[in-house]
Amino acid sequence: MCPARALTGPAPRTSIASAGKEAHVTRLPDTIDATEALLAGQGYVAARALATVVFLALKLGKPLFLEGEAGTGKTEIAKTLAAALGRRLIRLQCYEGLDAASAVAEWNFAAQMIAIRTAEAQGGADRDALKTELFTEDYLIARPLLEAMRPQPGGAPVLLIDELDRTDEPFEAFLLEALSDFQVTIPELGTIRAPEPPIVILTSNRTREVHDALKRRCLYHWVDYPTFDRELQILHSRAPEAKETLSREIVAFVQKLRSEDLFKKPGVAETIDWAKCLLALDVIALSPEVISDTLGAILKYQDDIQKLHGSEAKRLLDEVRRDLTPA
Ligand SMILES: Nc1ncnc2c1ncn2[C@@H]1O[C@H](COP(=O)(O)OP(=O)(O)OP(=O)(O)O)[C@@H](O)[C@H]1O
Ligand SMILES: [Mg+2]
User: Fold this and answer.
1) Ligand 1 near 237 CB (within 6 A)
2) Pair (131, 246) in one structural domain
3) Which stretches make up the AAA+ ATPase domain (predicted)?
4) Are residues 154 and 27 part of one domain?
5) Tell me: the pLDDT tens digits for 240-265?
6) Same domain, 22 and 111
7) Same structural domain for residues 59 and 194?
């Protein structure tokens, strides 16, 4: 395993101008501790194993494939890294039917038609010259994969390929080329290679298995629900206004719910949302009534909500209070 060294101070930052805004570029962390600190600086509380795999992905320049339950912080890792390192975030949101053109680049047909009409109006252009001109970068609309292969201010961007399990297998096969050699091919233009490989984060909710060939090119990590202590830290970071007693009750209750037989267990996102709802209602401690009234923040299926109505919420809350009482 890689040596872990304590962070001896903030990573050096330099300013760059990006799209008219002042952005900061931070060098890549050189230890696991520094990676944890980098993420924590943006309010992201990473388990040691996650910080390790992020550190390795950055160090080795390998894509990172994150699989896990919904709302456990997979997408947020990419956003956090981009913000912490001062890199541009480029997101490819996957969906069923996503094809190479929508992911890499499309020809701007409207602009091409205008160019053709203008040339015709000007008295008939040189057809061959026009044909060549129409298939240059001027008429290309870059989509996320092409954007990610281009040089960006501040260094290689963070490329988030989100919810890969929603695409189909042919698209995965196509991604292999992009991720193996960090290059994309546009038939009319040729192959475009990234001068510096992007930092690639892929996520999946595992609604289907992603092919081994793609996984082999990545470092893999399963993002699990956090432990009680880590979830409490996350809540402190994302909803710092919540008092300690209420935060502990919220986290313990959500953790208890995850051990119940539910159709859809609440993720960390739901814990944070619920805390914010309770704060908006000026709640200072949980009660069965408050839980019943705000269940829609943590459970999103009527069958699950139904199970928690009535005495069940009280039973769980009593158990939570017992667990939280020091022995
Ligand atoms: N470890 C963490 N530290 C700080 N915030 C977290 C952490 N994990 C989750 N969150 C918060 O939870 C919310 C949901 O995270 P995110 O959208 O990344 O989940 P996800 O795993 O991508 O979910 P989905 O599978 O539904 O897309 C975000 O607002 C994020 O800030
Ligand atoms: Mg996500």
Assistant:
1) yes
2) no
3) 60-238
4) yes
5) 999 999 999 999 999 999 999 999 99
6) no
7) yes
